[in-house]
Amino acid sequence: MECKDRQPFDIVRDILKVIEELNTLKDVDAILDKVLAEARDMTHADAGSIYLIEGENLSFSYVHNDTLFKGTEASKHIYTDFIVPINEKSIVGYVAMSGETLAIPDVYELVGDEPYSFNKKFDEETGYRTRSMLTIALKTFHGKIVGVMQLINATACDGTARPFTEYDIQYAPLFANSASVTIERGIMTRETMLRMMKMAEMRDPMETGAHVQRVGAYSAEIYQQWARNQGVDELTIRRKKDMLRLAAMLHDVGKVGISDAILKKPGRFNEQEAATMKWHSIYGAALFANTTSELDRLCKDVTLFHHERWDGKGYPGKLPGDLSQIRELCVECISGEDIPVSARITSLADVYDALISPRVYKSAWPEEQVLAEIINNRGTQFDPEVVDAFLEIQDTIRAIRRKYHG
Ligand SMILES: [Fe+2]
Ligand SMILES: [Fe+2]
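Above: inputs. Below: predicted complex with fe (ii) ion.
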């Protein structure tokens, strides 16, 4: 974090530049990450969190803490799941209700006549000492509050704690207002994706909303670890992680093209039905064919190749019958690194979730057995390096499972 006080002109110019960058992001988690990083940079805050409004509550949605969360540790905290009711008893609840910006020099020294109080539970559990706090409503220009951002422990250039300055109190809400529009757009994109998935779920009750949320989150996190292991730069990682989450969520959307007689058949498929079912990969890819955006291309790769195997024995490459009509989708017998990495990752995430979750035809496998099965298939079904990255982030994987259960 650069440590110098900036002039108003520089601050406004920087805000505009960040808003432009925010507009290139699609997924709401990537947007929250960027908003929080920029707001912290602007105010020299050690930590911060964002809560989004969900009905009558605030849902804890994103967190940074430079002191506590380091390296691969950081990701699992993003998937912490808790909600705070919107009322004046908590600091975030109060700000969500009133829309006011609240700057507190030291939360341990609240005088006691405020309607809200500071909850010390997090500090007691972690040993962190929360001092200064700047809490801002995320309000769009139409006055709609989409959430609350809380910036914690402003730091002076010499590293000591300081209260938030007048500049911080004036400019951070200006940035928050502009960012709120982007956050609202991110929420809408996510909801549109979920609606597409709902459509698929209505057809195939096995593909639940929770399953797609999990597969999206697992894939994003495995990608981040895999890419770091490969030495990919952080900027590229952030952008691709963002898109992969969305693409992975849509992995089975092609099931809308499969008839009810097959999709909803109780019991086992015969050979013919199983082959028809495999066409969901091709129908999915057809939804994203002939498109120009990078996200659509990624969706095509994931839908088409998420059942390919590292050893080349997967599908649609090995589908029986006449594939000539779909040749433009490049359905060859592909294996190894010819399979796009997005699909190699989603394949592992999808299989892992299917094994570790209960399904109508099977109960959930114990975690140990699932991991043993994945390790057993390292280098045959799955890309070995993708398996390694997945095994390195098990804490995050478990946190995702806890967040999107059901
Ligand atoms: Fe599938
Ligand atoms: Fe799936």
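The chain has two domains: 8-186, 204-403.
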